[in-house]
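REVIEWER CHECKLIST
Item 1: Sequence provided? yes
Item 2: Single chain? yes
Item 3: Sequence as submitted:
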Amino acid sequence: MVDALSAGLLCYCRAGFEPELAAELGQRAASAGFGGHARTDRSSGFVVFSGVDGASLARALPWRELIFARQDMAYPIVAPPGTPPERVTALRQAFEAVMKDPEFLADAKKQHLETALMRGEEIERLIDRIFASPPDVIARAANAIEAGKGVTTDKK
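Item 4: Structure as written out by the authors:
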């Protein structure tokens, strides 16, 4: 979740990952030509990136490529490596047809389900870009994931 502020950007992440999101935002903002700085409180689940026009920064950031910001991609459907290209094409066409089907959309609406379509080609490009992330971002993500193992939010 992201909210544009007049003097910054408010970003939502998983509690405990605020420093990683702050660092990632700083790097991505600088790459997009924005100055500014991140502020956060550990375990708050929020990072404020200040000193910039929030709306402009929100438009410039590659949200689907950010590792620590909450993402919009839910339930991607994948096929195993080596699936023949003609089969991938058929699966993508069938999935897109379902996502346009009026009966399916009406049923999803009744169940309050989100039905935003991210096409297979877009997901494939996104994954390629994520795997091409700078080594320091990958290292921070790996360290954060390792540090998070065994941590639970279950309440008894």
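Item 5: Key structural point noted by reviewer: The longest strand covers residues 8-12.
Item 6: Recommendation: ____
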